[in-house]
Amino acid sequence: MKSKTPMSEPVIQPKTTRRKFDKAFKQRAVELWLNSGRTATDVAAELGIHAQRLTAWRPQFGPPPPGGEGGGAKRTAEQLETENTMLRRDNDYLRQQRDILKKTLGILSETPTSATNGLTR
């Protein structure tokens, strides 16, 4: 009588039940991921879940994206005008700083006119 080899037997995967996670677990998992500075893959492996779950949970349980909620908060005309004024002031300041650096670079890159390199005794 011949015995069956393990290779000839069909492999039947045991049916796994779908795991469900409560809101508290999801919230803690996303916080751990975002506050740890590690990748989603590392944190997910530590928690025994797929990294795709963390990224799927982030919009619901993570902090809102920068700039407000839902793609940007509505601002009043006065707020926009104030921000515009501040940005123009910053822009002017940065232009002045750039011009100063250009002049300094020009002065430092000039060749000396005398053999003593500008030194007197």
Description of the molecule:
With 121 residues, the chain is an all-alpha fold. α1 crosses α2 and α1 crosses α3. The longest helix has 32 residues.
The low-confidence parts are none
What structural category characterises the helix and strand content? mainly alpha
Number of strands: 0
Could you tell me how far the N terminus lies from the C terminus, measured between alpha carbons in angstroms? 113 Å
Query: In DSSP terms, counting alpha (H) and pi (I) runs of 4 or more, how many helices?
Result: 4
Give helix % range: 40-55%
Radius of gyration: 32 Å
Beta fraction: under 5%
**Backbone shape:** elongated
Q: What order do the SSEs take from the amino end to the carboxyl end, as H and E?
A: HHHH
Q: Helices and strands in order, then pairings?
A:
Blueprint: H1 23-36, H2 40-47, H3 51-61, H4 77-108
Helix pairs in contact: 1-2, 1-3, 2-3
Question: Which keywords apply here?
Answer:
single chain; 121 residues; mainly alpha; 54% helix
Describe, in short, the structure shown.
The chain is mainly α and 121 residues long.
